[in-house]
User: Fold DNA oxidative demethylase ALKBH2 from Acanthoscelides obtectus.
Amino acid sequence: METKLDELQQTFLKISKTKLSLTKISGDRLDLDYGIVLPKTVANQVFKYLEETIEYYQGELTQVRIFGKFHKIPRQQVAFGDDGLKYTFSGVTVPAKPWTNVLESLRNMVGCLTGHHYNFVLINRYRNGKDHIGEHRDAEKDLDRNSPIVSISLGQQRNFILKHGESRGKNKSKSIRPVKLALEHGSILLMNPPTNEIWYHSLPPCKTAPGVRINLTFRKIIV
Ligand SMILES: O=C(O)CCC(=O)C(=O)O
Ligand SMILES: [Fe+2]
Assistant:
């Protein structure tokens, strides 16, 4: 196991020094970059490592507060980060666990590739096609607005839907079409500013995608 982990860290270091070729997706205050960052064999190894080692939150930390009521989140979640970091969203505060060696080297890789420093990663695990995340923006006040949020996906491919804030619901003032991305195993998605100020995103349930999916979002929390 040890040597395998060293190997994985070496692989991340090698990828750090490459130049990513990503596809730009833009629209009205939408700025995304998408592509494959981890070759399939590496993505398989990372997925396996995470499945074997990561313990997700239990108890109170598996709930969110919406309009004062607590709801169990329809997925599993855990966060890692620099010492003492916390992140508050949807009425809950999650404490970061200390970095593992592999997650820290993945964080460093993401930093090298994007030119931004990340101090926190939120990991979401979708156990099956029913698990999902509802429409939201990642625009909490303790997130550094100038840093892209970097999302790495592993396992089951799922659709990721982005909706313009002024094109949602009954009182919409614009009719901008949603953007749909199939997030592949080993892919990276950069949500660049100001995307998260304007656009909402979700990962809806999908019956035809029953496998486990793990998503890591690297974030910069203002300290
Ligand atoms: O699972 C994903 O691709 C997105 C997760 C997400 O939006 C979040 O954690 O804020
Ligand atoms: Fe999000």
Summary: Helices lie at 2-16, 40-53, 101-114, 195-198. The chain is about 20% helix and 35% strand. Residues 34 and 77 are 23 Å apart (CA to CA).
